[in-house]
Specification:
The protein is mainly α. The protein has a domain of 56 residues. The chain contains 28 helices and no strands. α4 runs antiparallel to α5 and α25 runs parallel beside α27. The protein is flat. The two termini are 33 Å apart. The N terminus and C terminus are likely disordered.
């Protein structure tokens, strides 16, 4: 009532107190307002009352539908209210994710957890509601995410779970440990001996921030050379990079491993450990025939060494772009952003344009287009061509057109959001909600028949509503 009195009394000292207004509906409110004493015009007053109403708590009907788990009915109430209450849509998205987190299928639960983690603070209300979940696996994952968001109370609640014998719970509980403290660093080093690969991975992730002492370095060297899980060995190489030159020799040895993922991890770690020494060691990869390793060296050394190695790195990428192996061309196209956007008439732009004229793989075409300056004559034409095709590349091209202000891109996204393929629907709808700031247009994806679509759209709506707090036109 005080808010309505303040509005009616604005700008006039002669307005009598309004005592007959009942906040039942705008229609009832309008009937009871003494208009002769109101200094505002009826249309302006109605608009201001709408603002007050839209900022109020969710409508009782929507609240009741959510409490009953009737998400379709809740979405119907939101649609009746229109686009003025985006937080209501976010609350429905919360409910969708909460339902998927309780799925009987572990793959669905894992997908929903990953989506919530990517959403960050936008999922905070949902995380707060689930921090005391009865399911131990869910509660530990929620608490771990809250710790990542800076919640000290969640850290305290998570620590007792470090005694769990369940791999998923223990790997989540590792998030409670702080490598900067001696006691926690010692516990993390003990966890490197865990029989569970995901626990060892979680501990390595935290130990990247630990003091680079010799005992830890020895443990990392052993893992990088002897762990049976390639992901763990690669993570150990990455952690060794934080030890600088002291860890260089152990990382270099991994260049001779049979596993290509480990060789690639070693290249990245060497550049981080000692950029100058790595440049001297790895430049040979740039001078040979195009290869996956050569492209990885080009990616990392170009970023770290700048102009000194740019010509050799660029030559490796250009040779790979002309290779008959499509997978090599695709990798080369993803390396191009490391060189930053070229000038319109630069040799790199000319090389990209020349390759575009003969490239037949849509995914490679898209990567090449994105490496060109947006004002390049080929850029929009190729994006329009690719968006008219099918597959994920069409969605990505349409999204890029829309980001560049091209209305045809948005129209194409709306079309693709109705595609028969779940993957295309999820990418198109998520792009509308998150990247273009149009969560309202993606709302029907919350009720999609495919759980992967529902999860992707719900997470994107949370980001679109709580991340930007705006709805595009």
């Amino acid at each position: 009532m005080a808010g309505v009195k303040a509005i009616l009394g604005a700008g006039s000292k002669q307005v009598r107190p309004v005592t007959r207004v009942r906040l039942v509906s705008f229609r009832g409110m309008w009937k009871n307002v003494p208009m002769r004493s109101c200094p505002l015009s009826p249309p302006l007053l109605m608009a201001m009352l709408c603002v007050v109403g839209c900022a109020a708590a969710p409508a009782p009907q929507l609240e009741h539908a959510l409490s009953e788990g009737q998400l379709g009915r809740a979405l119907g109430h939101y649609e009746t209210a229109g686009q003025g209450r985006p937080e209501d849509l976010a609350r429905i998205a919360d409910a969708v994710l909460e339902r998927e987190l309780g799925s009987a299928e572990s793959a669905t639960r894992g997908r929903a957890l990953a989506a919530v983690a990517r959403t960050g603070n936008a999922a905070r209300p949902l995380l707060e509601r689930l921090r005391t979940a009865s399911d131990l696996e869910l509660r530990s994952a929620v608490l771990a995410q809250l710790v990542r968001l800076g919640d000290d109370a969640a850290r305290s609640s998570l620590r007792p779970l470090l005694d769990s014998g369940q791999a998923s719970v223990l790997s989540a509980a590792v998030e409670a440990l702080e490598a900067a403290t001696a006691a926690d660093a010692a516990r993390l080093r003990q966890l490197l001996d865990s029989p569970f690969a995901q626990v060892r991975l979680a501990a390595l992730g935290k130990l990247r921030h630990a003091a680079p002492v010799a005992s830890l370095r020895l443990a990392l060297v052993e893992l990088s050379h002897g762990d049976p899980e390639p992901r763990v060995a690669a993570a150990a190489l990455s952690a060794l990079a934080n030890h600088g030159p002291a860890g260089f020799a152990a990382i270099e040895a991994a260049l001779e491993r049979d596993s290509q993922p480990l060789r690639l991890a070693a290249i990245a770690a060497l550049v981080r450990a000692d950029p100058q020494r790595a440049a001297e060691l790895l430049v040979r990869y740039l001078q040979g025939d195009p290869s996956v390793e050569g492209l990885e060296v080009a990616r990392h050394l170009q970023a770290g060494q700048g102009a000194a190695l740019a010509p050799a790195a660029l030559a490796q990428v250009e040779r790979a772009l002309a290779a008959p192996d499509a997978s090599l061309r695709a990798r080369a196209a993803t390396v191009l952003p490391s060189f930053h956007l070229p000038a319109l008439d630069s040799p790199l732009a000319q090389a990209i344009a020349a390759r575009l004229k003969v490239e037949s793989a849509p995914s490679i075409e898209l990567s090449l287009v994105l490496a060109l300056p947006p004002s390049h004559a080929l850029a929009r034409r190729r994006l329009a061509k690719l968006s008219a095709g099918d597959g994920v590349v069409a969605v990505q091209a349409a999204a890029e057109l829309a980001r560049r202000g091209d209305r045809s891109g948005r129209r194409r996204l709306v079309e693709l959001a109705r595609d028969d393929k779940p993957l295309l629907r999820s990418v198109a709808l998520a792009t509308l909600a998150r990247d273009l700031g149009l969560p309202h247009q993606a709302r029907r994806g919350l009720l999609d028949k495919d759980s992967a679509v529902r999860i992707a759209v719900a997470a994107a709506i949370l980001s679109g509503v709580r991340g930007t707090r705006r709805e595009g036109s």
